[in-house]
Amino acid sequence: MDGTPFNVWDRRCVDPFFTEDYELLDFGNGRRLERFGDITLDRPSPAAEGIPCFPELWAKADSRFRRTQGNFGQWLDVRDIPERWTIRWGPLSFELKRNQSGHVGLFPEQVVNWIWLYHHIKHHGPLGPILNLFAYTGGSTLAAALAGAEVFHVDAAQNVVGWARRNAEVSGLAQAPIHWIVEDARKFLRREIRREKRYWGIILDPPSYGHGPRGESFQLERHIVGLLEAAFSLLDWERGFFLMTCHTPGYGTQKLTRLFHDLRPELWQRGQMTIRMMTIASKSGQVLPSGMLVRWDAADHNTASD
After folding, report:
1. Closest Cα partner for 41 from 89, 105, 109, 110?
2. Could you read off the pLDDT of 10-22 as tens digits, one per residue?
3. I want to staple 67 with a disulfide (CB 3.0 to 4.6 A). Which of 73, 78, 80, 279 is the partner?
4. Alpha carbon separation from 118 to 102, 149, 295 (Å, rounded)
């Protein structure tokens, strides 16, 4: 296990996902200043501790998100901003849209996972289908499909699955073998278990709280153990891989290590286990903590044993 933060801008492995359409300009005082294409946004970020390095840049934000109730709020625009706009990220394109939670439909810290998925699939496979749960707007789905994998993209929100499909279209992947599925993740897993399906890779990014298409409730604290047990029962343990990202407060390296060790202590013997922080580097070189990743890979273990 490596607990060292992994910087998504590490130039040793950015290819093929380098972009000039995104930049973390600055962060601090609980906020982050980012450029998406030619639009600069100022929005909350609980992990953005300390004092901003470039105070003068913040006045140039095109829009600022202000919370009004809980995690919800409104965008205060300085100039006209289109409802939707598109940016390039290497060979992929993403349609962005601001929502009432302060998100835009893309999580830049996930790039490290797109890079790993792409190179892993190119090097080892594809050796079977890949399942992407809580798949959102499809960054990992598109990275896997770009490398040649068949992907089952599952998300509970029909509008979000439609958004991911548009991202596939503008990325030139409309004909890629992607199965677009609107379903509650736990219901989908139970059905696949009954069908005795097997997946070469399983990706999931469970939210702290969520709802299925028929009102099914999900709470990570309550349901994560059952979710992981179900996912593990579908995994190809001889050749496969597992990738989970987590943005829930309190789930750091120690808690995630205990969680996975209690569930499957043999993970550390049967493959390469990695638990580490995801970060984004700012213009000043400082890094913004941006969630955790857990990755298990049978191939690395088997290669090391040869």
Report:
1. 105
2. 443 446 899 999 9
3. 73
4. 29, 9, 14
